[in-house]
Amino acid sequence: MNPDAQPIVFFRDADISNGEVVVVENLNLAIRPGEFVYLTGKVGSGKTSIIRTLTGENRPLSGEARVGDFDLTNLKNKQIPYLRRTLGIVFQDFQLLMDRSVEDNLRFVLQATGWKDKPAMAERIATVLDAVGLASKSYKQPHQLSGGEQQRAAIARALLNEPALILADEPTGNLDEETARGIMELLFEINRRGTAILMVTHNQSIIRNYPARVIHIENGVCNEIGIEG
After folding, report:
1. What is the CATH number of domain 1-86+165-229?
2. How far is Cα 82 from Cα 99, in angstroms, rounded to an integer?
3. What predicted TM-score, i.e. pTM, was given to this entire model?
4. Where in the chain do CATH 3.40.50.300 domains reside?
5. Any idea what DSSP says for residue 221?
6. Could you report the per-residue pLDDT of 41-66, keeping only the tens digit for each?
7. Angle (CA) 106 108 111, round 5°
């Protein structure tokens, strides 16, 4: 991680809403390429609202807010699909399409984001499945996979368009401890290759075992705790 690099995420004095009322006040946050950052706080503290702001679902009510070259305060609706193509998103509940194979899940995303070259799509799908350890299970449907394998498929989906930033919203929340460790090892390996990761979590054990920068929200205020470990 280059401390002099231009931030991929930048907030200055930004008020973040949940779509109705302010939940985080005067947010100041910069995430640079290649950083791994945890976002913590109680349920309802505003963590998900920050994620939704980064994906263009909620607009900041004041201040500055950017993701890459996108100005979130003046984001036009037609820009939102292009913003989201620069991000990888991993959910707690996987959100895979259950009526098709892992490979077809990934092909669907590529087609939806403008890919047309079939050999190039097949090559990209093979690359990301190999990266997450699912190269031999591309033909399986999600219900035939374990929870950890489903999350690996979801991470593969997030990697398809080579995002500079992955937003991981409680990615280990539905997994047992051993499986969660495997997912964390995978996320840190992806991070070591240069992808920034912002991960929402309640799990203090994970933060202790996988130290990184920690941002904590409490009473509507976001503060940096530092590097936990």
Report:
1. 3.40.50.300
2. 27
3. 0.91
4. 1-86+165-229
5. E
6. 988 888 999 999 999 999 999 999 99
7. 110
